[in-house]
Amino acid sequence: MEQGGDSRDSAYSIRAVQRVCNILDLIQESPESFSLTQVAEVTALPKSSAYRYLATLESRRYVMRDPLSGTYRIGPAFLPLQSRQLTVLADRVRPHLMRLRDEFRETFNLGILDGYRVSYVEIVESPHSVRLAARPGDRDHLHCTALGKAIAAGLEEDRVKAILYAEGLPRRTPATITDLPAYLEDLARVRERGYAVDDTENEPDGRCVAVPLSDIGLPAAISISAPTTRLTSDGVANVAKALADAAVVIRQEFTGAAG
Questions:
Q1: Which of 20, 77, 101, 184 suits a disulfide with 61, CB 3.0-4.6 Å?
Q2: 25, containing H or E segment
Q3: Rounded to two decimals, what is the model's pTM?
Q4: What tens digit of pLDDT does each residue of 111-150 get?
């Protein structure tokens, strides 16, 4: 009897794994998000079973649930499985960050959208002993970082709202934008001028400028981070142009337009 029980448990476990794989195959192979009903229909699962699987996957960050629409899309836990794509991205962007670092002698960063936050993929640090520098793998909010704003400016407004409803707009400094309408107005300015600014909104003595990277396969941006004593308000436009020029070359390298 014990052996038979083990056999039934094993068969159940295999079916459960197959069902999870079917759900993940559905969600990760499409850029669209899926409702619970759609997942249940396509995978031929009872809605209650599909919900349990999705809830477990969401708790492990393999899928994300949009708090507004209730739909599901692939989650940030798949980032390690996308390491090849990230390696290619970092390898192509790194020389440009190094060139900018050598020109401005400040820290330059590459960030991507990781779930509801920005994740630092590549960081080239300033030679100054006093500098602003995150670590690769660090994650930060979209509302108070230049990288986050540059990325959010390229997303649909409903998606931005969903992220902010889920994450909130926590105050990091007295200058942090904590009001949704004010943040959306700031994103409109980012789109108009082509770059984002974190003006002591994440660190009290830090200023960052970022531009989006387009046509590279995922939401991403590059930025400069520096103390306000060295990166002054008057210097923002100059470094923004240098970042924008680098972003154009990076896009050309990804799309083949340079040839």
A1: 77
A2: helix 2-28
A3: 0.72
A4: 998 878 899 999 999 999 888 878 888 899 999 999 999 9
